[in-house]
Amino acid sequence: MTNLLQLFDQLTAENVRSAYLNEGNSKEKNWQQVFYGSSYNKLREVKRKYDPYGILWGRTTVGSEAWVERGDGRLCYKHSRL
Fold first, then answer.
1. Could you point out which of 16, 31, 34, 59 has its C-alpha 20 to 30 Å from the C-alpha of 6?
2. CA 46 to the chain's CA centroid
3. What is the mean pLDDT of the chain?
């Protein structure tokens, strides 16, 4: 599977594969780039404006790296803000 993804990366502009969240691999190492490309930083700004507390969360949604998912499924905020 990894070799196939690497091949897709070589074939796509900016190494961005098109997918929407429920199709993507939540364990993708560079999911911010893969799912959102060069738009990620701008999307984080929008996220901070409209969801400053990070209430709207998903494993690969913008800003989700600010949270840690515990073994029991609970979310804990990391030290830094979104």
1. 59
2. 15
3. 80
Number of structural domains in the chain: 1
Q: How far apart are CA 47 and CA 68, in angstroms?
A: 18
pLDDT in tens, 37-68: 899 999 999 999 999 988 898 888 999 988 99
Q: What is the pLDDT of residues 15-45, one digit of tens each?
A: 555 555 666 777 888 889 888 889 999 999 9
Domain presence at residue 82: no
Residue 16 covered by a domain: yes
Predicted TM-score of the model (pTM): 0.65
Q: Which two tokens stand for residue 54?
A: 């990070």
Q: Could you list the residue range(s) of the whole structural domain that residue 57 is in?
A: 2-77
In a domain? residue 67: yes
Report long-range pairs for 40-45 (Cβ below 8 Å, ≥24 apart).
Answer: 44/82
